[in-house]
Every structure is written in structure tokens, then in C-alpha cells.
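To the team - magnesium ion complex, inputs and output below.
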Amino acid sequence: MDLKNLEILSPEEVEKLRGKGIFTVERLVICSAEELVETLGAEEGRIEEILIEAWKKTGHWFIRASDYSRQAGEIVLTTGSKALDDLLGGGVRTKRITEFIGEYRVGKTQTALTILVEALGREPDVHAIYMDSEKGFNDGRIMEIAKNRGYDGADILQRISLVPVVSCYHMMKSLQWIDDVLSKKKGRILVVDSVIAPFRSEYIGRETLAERQQLLGKALDQMSKIAEAYNIAVVATNQVVAKPEQTYSYDPLAEVTPAGGHILGHRSQERIHLRKGRGDIRIARLIDSSWLPPGECMFRITERGVEDIPEKKTAAKNVAAN
Ligand code: GTP
Ligand code: MG
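Output:
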């Protein structure tokens, strides 16, 4: 909804907001009062007036509970593997952050790319934003996955806005200005691969940890608000780091911990730990969800991206295991 629909705003105020990357009412409602005081140079009373009007327009101001459903309009996107979709209660959802964690080369990027190709392949009019801080975005691979899934890869690439992230500031500003893309296009998915990389390279050493965590928390809050405001799925990846005190355990997560610590855990609604199996096989474990039972599944990475293991292979494996 263009800012013009918010009659309370003067043309000067609209201009000032646009100058800070705020083009829609959806984006305006997720601003903090401080951000608006700074942007508009207005008194808090005026900001309050504006925000209340904006909250009313977007259904955030004293609505009847019977008219409300958090799930309303929520869209489920496939991961490319039925087994992984089932683990996630159908797939990756809009309005939420789904986080894939795991060690180097386990398939986090491949999973994100397959979700992206499927989302854009199935719906011809939707767009994606891809923030790549690890140089993992690969147009050739997108073309390959798309072709093997029967989609037009060139058309899909046209509908991805890529941000090759070069610094923390760059990532934060891209999030702030996301309305520049989403005010003109119907967004469906935001991939952030990975969330932590720019923070880890810029904030080195224990003494910067508090500052790093604070900024990381801010970035994640913004992603979470974006997911909700624009009804898009946020797919984030994250590496795991070795725990300082290593103890042997059957639990694959006992020896590692997601980078970024609890800051990420609190914000991502679903967290999936990936680990390597034999050959191209990967094991996914749902480790953190507010509404799904924990569980595990297997899939593989092939020329189609992420996909199911053929029946025969799983059956043979089950027999071997018995
Ligand atoms: P980091 O970004 O290094 O932390 O790793 P990641 O978890 O993102 O791993 P990524 O998604 O890059 O997966 C790498 C693995 O996917 C490789 O070891 C391969 O097994 C597989 N893979 C990557 N590209 C291809 C490809 O073009 N074809 C096939 N068949 N497999 C691929
Ligand atoms: Mg990667």
C-alpha cells in the first residue's frame, strides 16, 4: 500500500520517508518511533498520530480477535524434498524465519537455492531477494536446478534481486531499503546466506562480542518484521562452530553450536540442523520449533538440487539397518 493512501501524511513527510527507503504503509508500520523522529524531524506526538493511522490501515490497532488469524494468508513453500517438507509440517512458511544450520559444505546453500527455484518456478509473478554474504549464489546452478525441475531458469533469474553483501553496514542498509524492491514487486522469499558471515569477519575478538550480538539481533529483528509485514518466507543459513568443551555424545549437536548463539535461536521460528550422510545423502533434524515435534529425515543433493532419496535406496537402507 503506497504511502499516498495514508491521508494523514503531508507531501513533505512522504518525501522524507521515501528518502529513507520507506515507500509503503507496510514498511512504515515496522519502524520504531526513534527512526521516525529522526527521519521526519517531528515531535513524538506527531509520530504517534501517524503510526496509529498506519496501524489502523494495516489491521494492527484493536481488532476483533475473531477476525484475526496469524495463519491467514500464510503460504507454504516446498523445499524440493517431500521428506523435508513433511518434517517442516508441509514446507517452509511465509511470515517466519526458517534457519538451516550445519557445517561447511553440508548443503545449506543448495537447500536455499532449491526452495528459491521452486517458489519462483511455481508462481510466475513472484519475486525473491537473495542476500549473499558467502559468495554461494550461483546462477549456473539455479539454471541447472530449474531445468531439471521443468522451470525456465532465465525467467527465474530475472525475478531475483541479488545483494552480494560486502559488509555489515551493507546488509543492514539492504534490509532497511528492502521496500525499494518490495513496494514494486510481489515478494515471496528472502534468502539470507549466511546471516552471520559479515558479523564474524568484522567483529573479531571477545571484546567486540556484545556489540556484534546487538547488531546481529537488530538485523534478525528486522528480518522477522519483514517476513510478517510482506508475507514472505525468510530462509536463513548459519554455520555451526565447535563447542569449547567437547564431550562425546550420540547427539550430533552436542559437539557443535550454531554460530551467533542464542540471538539467532530466539528469532528463527524453525531451525533445522543438516549433517552429512553417505555420498550425496544428507540428514535433517528439526531442532527448534514452536509448533512441530522434533524429528529427522533424509534427502539428497543432486542435479535437481535438494530431492528425496528414491524408494528403493531407502528400503535397501532400512533392510541393511535391521
Ligand atoms: P558452506 O557455504 O561452505 O558453509 O556450505 P553449504 O552448507 O552452503 O554447502 P552447499 O550448499 O554449498 O553444498 C555443497 C555440497 O552440495 C557439495 O559438497 C555437493 O555435495 C553438493 N553440490 C553443490 N553443487 C552441486 C552441483 O552442482 N551438483 C551436485 N550434484 N551437487 C552439488
Ligand atoms: Mg553455503
